[in-house]
Specification:
The complex is a heterodimer of chains A (170) and B (170). With 170 residues, chain A is an alpha+beta fold. Helix content of chain A is 18%, strand content 41%. Chain A has one domain: CheA-289, Domain 4 (OB fold (Dihydrolipoamide Acetyltransferase, E2P)). Chain A has 3 helices and 10 strands. Chain A is elongated, with a radius of gyration of 21 Å. In chain B, strand 1 and strand 2 form a beta hairpin. Chain B has 170 residues and is an alpha+beta fold. The N terminus of chain B is likely disordered. An 8-stranded mixed beta sheet of chain B has the order 3-4-5-1-2-8-7-6. Chain B has one domain. Chain B is globular, with a radius of gyration of 16 Å. The chains are: A alpha+beta (170), B alpha+beta (170). Chains A and B meet through strand 4, strand 5, strand 7 and helix 3 of A and helix 4 of B.
Chain lengths: 170, 170
């Protein structure tokens, strides 16, 4: 006859549950998207909204990387194309493209991306520091890298992106 | 409709200047209070330049008259930074300029040939939007102060609101 008591079993189960809680680690919400063949991400708290469709009003006198403005429930936001800033080929707005409404560095703007891949919570530890092999123009823009669905993803610094764009880069 | 003169007798407090209303980092936050405190629309003189509908504050425009036959110039496009375009219905706008050396009267007005139709409209305050920060930083248009979405413009076009006095200053 077993000497184990019900009380011991319950204590053991409670301890097990506590351990599960204890191994939880801080998660980071990321909005993962494609620009051309490459995957990038912004921190979720920087993205207010994802717009699958929006009428973009062209404004003259702007660089080609500034697509125009959109009307978001009565407010006007610019829409930028970050391809040039990241030294990527810009194939124009495709069928799967979306606009991410981002806020950073005290500024807000729409950001045209070629496809939104996913919005996910990932463990903080899965984001690694940027590798030393990163191209020069990316070093100040990339906060970290991770793998998602077997693809490398660079997490971008939206504050720096907007600041660089306002300074005339891209 | 041909515009013959800007009203000058309305109380100044109803006229929140386009410059004053839209300058500064707190523009977005004060927009709501402006909307609440300004009773009426902002009087604007609309005309065409470079193929775009453009607006100057009516209080800075003394009047308009048909341009002399054969009068063509792209002076307004050059002043605003817009692409040159052939005027199909040229009109002369008399832009007020501050008097110098105590002189008064309209001898300091600057006559500018613009494309018609020239209209005087009351633009609803809620249709006027400060420039999004990235657009403000990158636009090559001179003295562009705001954008407006209004039925007076085509469904796919924005109205470009300039500081006419600054653009037409010496």
């Amino acid at each position: 006859m077993s000497e184990t008591t019900l009380e011991q079993v319950l204590i053991q189960r409670r301890e097990a549950n506590k351990e599960i809680v204890n191994v939880d680690e801080p998660a980071v919400k990321l909005v993962i998207f494609e620009l051309g063949e490459q995957c990038f991400a912004f921190h979720g708290e920087r993205i207010r909204e994802i717009l699958a469709q929006a009428d973009v009003f062209f404004v003259p006198g702007c660089p080609p990387s500034l697509e125009g403005v959109i009307n978001v429930r009565g407010d006007i936001e610019s829409v930028i194309r970050p391809h040039e800033l990241l030294h990527l080929p810009d194939g124009g707005a495709g069928r799967n493209s979306s606009i991410l409404l981002g806020r950073g560095g005290g500024m807000s703007s729409g950001i045209r991306v070629d496809r939104v891949v996913d919005v996910v919570d990932v463990p903080h530890s899965s984001i690694q520091p940027p590798p030393a092999t990163l191209p020069e123009h990316m070093r100040t823009l990339v906060l970290g890298v991770l793998r998602f669905q077997e693809r490398p993803v660079a997490v971008l610094d939206l504050d720096k992106m907007f600041a660089d764009y306002a300074r005339g880069l891209g | 409709m041909s515009y013959v003169g800007a009203p000058e007798t309305r109380p100044e407090m109803l006229y929140e200047s386009l410059n004053g209303a839209l300058d500064g980092p707190i523009a977005a936050s004060i927009e709501a209070s402006i909307t609440a405190s300004i009773a009426g629309p902002l009087d604007m003189v609309l005309f065409s330049a470079g193929g775009w509908r453009v607006g100057f504050e009516a209080r800075g425009v003394r009047g308009a008259r048909p341009a002399p036959t054969g009068a063509t110039t792209n002076e307004i496009e050059a002043l605003l930074g817009l692409p040159a375009a052939v005027a199909r219905a040229p009109q002369v706008l008399a832009i007020k300029r501050p008097a110098r050396d105590g002189q008064r009267g309209d001898e300091h007005d600057r006559d500018i040939i613009v494309d018609g139709p020239v209209e005087l409209i009351g633009l609803p305050i809620t249709a006027i939007h400060p420039l999004p920060p990235l657009l403000a930083a990158r636009t090559r248009l001179h003295e562009l102060r705001a954008l407006a979405l209004h039925p007076a413009t085509a469904a796919t076009a924005v109205l470009l609101l300039f500081d006419g006095e600054a653009a037409c200053a010496d």
